[in-house]
Amino acid sequence: MGLILCEDIVADKPYYVEELDINIYSIEELGYILYEHPLLVMEDFISTALFDFIKTELKKESLAISIEKMYAEKISDENIIIYILETLDFYKSSEISRYKNLITNYRKLKRVEFLKAKADYMFGIKRYGKAIRFYSIICKQPPDRNIADKFQGKIWHNMGSAYANLFLYEKALEAYKKSFEYLKDNDILKKIYFLSKLGEDEVFTEFLDDNGIESIDASWDEEYNETLKKALASQRIDYLDSIMKKDSYEKRLLINELAAAWKQEYRNML
User: Fold this and answer.
1) What is the pTM of this model?
2) 115: closest CA among 137, 86, 141?
3) 224: how many CB neighbours lie within 10 A of its CB?
4) Which of 12, 70, 76, 213 is an S-S bond match for 208, by CB 3.0 to 4.6 Å?
């Protein structure tokens, strides 16, 4: 990215980007959002509200008229975005070329693959609620023989990780159970075991019986206790206590520690 010369125009009424939960105040910020977050702007970002913002708040009437005309002519959103980036001249031609290639590759994905990429991106920037929304859309799709069980299993696994990061351990548990149905992965079974211990151990016993599993790794109990010990020593106790009052002290601390520990495993499941 080259040097951007900032203009003096700052919007009185900013443009809100829901996916990122931020406000845009300048043309430079708009260009940055478009370039740095392609997955979030390829659909439903280009709109008449954006045109009005560019025209009235950013005082870019010529640009607004041009892209509004493109929109009326059914030009694709990504081509409108590329036009905006080229017009703003914030990025080098080589950077624009890389951006075009990235957009092209995203468009080659199947619909469910695109939604997963978007959900995974949301997870990566810690927008866990948004990630869950996109994972849920995929899970509600009609059965498709072309979608492998491994793909479905990853969706449920990543949704479970998102729920865990929101401290919604019961929903995380159910998502991991669904993931295990597809993947039969021992690491996922361990997560189910840990989360089951936050509630009723009988739940895990029933799960083992339902899946024909006779025993689990003996080291898991020791690992669970070590994780709990580490959680109890956390310096974030007061913060957790303020946002998780409805759950027990032990559960709040442990789910926080588990969520942190499982982030790397989530990345391996992408």
Assistant:
1) 0.78
2) 137
3) 16
4) 213
Arithmetic mean of pLDDT over the chain: 84
Q: Is the pLDDT of residue 51 over 50?
A: yes
Name the H helices within the chain: 27-36, 38-41, 48-52, 61-72, 77-88, 93-107, 111-124, 128-139, 149-165, 169-183, 186-196, 201-210, 219-232, 237-243, 249-268
Using one digit for the tens of pLDDT, what is the confidence trace for 95-129? 999 999 999 999 999 999 999 999 999 999 999 99
Residue type, 80: I
What residue type is assigned to position 196 of the chain?
S
> Distance between CA 49 and CA 183 in Å, rounded?
44
pLDDT at 243: 39
- Domains defined along the chain, listed by start: 15-107 (no CATH), 112-268 (1.25.40)
State how far the Cα of 40 lies from the Cα of 17, in Å rounded to an integer. 10
The highest-confidence range among 133-147, 151-165, 242-256, by mean pLDDT, is 151-165
In whole angstroms, give the CA distance from residue 107 to residue 101.
Answer: 10
